[in-house]
Amino acid sequence: MTVTPLSDSQIIPFYLTSGAENIALIRGRIASVGKPATTILQRHAYPPAIARMQAEALALTACLASTLKFDGIFTLQAKGDALVRTLFADMTSDGDLRGYAAFDADAPSPDNDDPTLPANVPQLMGSGHIAFTVDEGATGGRYQGIVDLEGATLSDAATSWFANSEQLDTLVVAASHLQDQQWQATAMMLQRIATEGGENGSAAERDLSDDAWHTAKTLMESLRFDEMVDPTLSPEALIFRLFNSMEPHVAPVREVRDKCRCSPQRVENMLGQLDPADLTDLADEDGQIEIICEFCKTKRQIRTDEIAASPTSQ
C-alpha cells in the first residue's frame, strides 16, 4: 500500500463489513499525528514521560474529534493531583491541533517509566478527572462529558467516556514514541454500529453484529505497541494488516496541522478586560507587558497605554 504524503499528520475513517453481505458493522478511525506532535513538543521542555503522555493526548484528541459532527472545537482536558496537574489538547473542526501540559517542575519525574508502553496515568496524574468537550461557539451548543481518571492509560479514560456518553461498544488505543527527534503518535478507535431496529432487530442481525464486534475487538487487541509507532508502517497499511479479513473500506483522509489560535488581537482583548491597576502590576518599568502563549510559546509585548487606547478596553 502506498504511503500518502500526510501519513504522519492525518485522520483516516474506515469501516469494517460483514463479508458476503458487505454491510458496514464497525466504524473506525486512525489518527497519525507525529508531525504536528513533533513541532508542538519541540516548543516545550517536558520530561520524557510527560512528553509521551502529551503526544498520546494529541493523537486521541484528533481521533475522537473526527468521530463527531461539529463546527467548532473539541477539547480533551485532564486534571490530576500528582506530577501533572493539567493535560490539555484541542482540535478545531478544520484540523488545527494544539496542546500543553502543566506540571510541578520541582517534583521528581518517575524513574521507572517504560517508553515501550503507553503513558502511566496513575503514576503521572494520580487521581482526578478528564473532560471531553465539544464547543460550537456562540451560535451552537456546548456539550461536555466527564469521567474519573480510572484505568492505567488515557485510552482507558477515553473508552470509559464513550461507554458513558454514547453507550455503544467502543475500544480506543493510543501510543507514542520519540525516535531520532521525531515523534510517532497514533490513536485508533473501533465502535460497533447499532443494528437497524436496535434491540428490536432480528436475531440474525444481532448475531451478525455480535460476531463482527467480537472479531474486530480481538483483532485490535492483538495490535502491538511497536506497530502503532512504527514510522515505516503507514496508517492505511496498519488498517489492512489488522482487519484484512473484515474487508476494510477506507474513506478520504482528513489533514491535521499544528496551528495555534492565539493572535495579537486576542491578547489585546484579554488585557483590555483587566483593571488599570492590574495592568500596572503586570507591566515592567517601561510600561511593557509580556505575554507568552502556553500553547505555541509565542512572546508578545504590548504597552499599557496601547491597551488603554484599544477599542476593546473602552
Topology:
Layout: E1 10-17, E2 24-32, H1 34-42, H2 48-65, E3 73-80, E4 84-92, E5 96-103, H3 121-125, E6 128-135, E7 142-148, H4 154-165, E8 170-179, E9 182-192, H5 203-221, H6 225-228, H7 235-243, E10 249-250, E11 254-255, E12 257-258, H8 264-271, H9 276-282, E13 288-292, E14 299-303, H10 304-309
Parallel strand pairs: 5-12
Antiparallel strand pairs: 1-2, 1-10, 1-11, 2-9, 3-4, 3-6, 4-5, 6-7, 8-9, 13-14
CATH superfamily of the largest domain: Hsp33 domain
The share of residues in helices is 25-40%
Write down the overall mean pLDDT.
89
Distance between the termini: 59 Å
The count of helical stretches stands at 10
Strand content: 25-35%
| Structural shape | elongated
Query: How would a crystallographer describe the biggest sheet?
Result: 6 strands, antiparallel
Give the helix/strand class: alpha+beta
What CATH calls the topology of the largest domain is Hsp33 domain
Gyration radius, to the nearest Å? Answer: 22 Å
- Please give the CATH architecture of the largest domain: 3-Layer(bab) Sandwich
**Which consecutive residue ranges, at least 5 long each, have pLDDT under 50?**
1-6
Oligomer: single chain
Order of helices and strands: EEHHEEEHEEHEEHHHEEEHHEEH
Supply the CATH class of the largest domain: Alpha Beta
Q: What is the tally of beta strands?
A: 14
As for the number of domains, it is 2
Would you give an account of this structure?
With 314 residues, the chain is α+β, with helices and mostly antiparallel strands. The protein folds into 2 domains: 10-258, Hsp33 domain, CATH 3.55.30.10; 264-313, Alpha-Beta Complex (CBS domain Like), CATH 3.90.1280.10. 31% of the residues lie in helices and 30% in strands. It has 10 helices and 14 strands. The chain has helices spanning 34-42, 48-65, 121-125, 154-165, 203-221, 225-228, 235-243, 264-271, 276-282, 304-309; strands spanning 10-17, 24-32, 73-80, 84-92, 96-103, 128-135, 142-148, 170-179, 182-192, 249-250, 254-255, 257-258, 288-292, 299-303. Strands 1, 2, 8, 9, 10 and 11 form a 6-stranded antiparallel β-sheet that branches. It has a 6-stranded mixed β-sheet with strand order 7-6-3-4-5-12, with helices on one face. Helix 1 (34-42) packs across helix 2 (48-65). The protein starts with 9 loop residues before the first strand and ends in a 5-residue tail after the last helix. Residues 1-6 have low confidence and may be disordered.
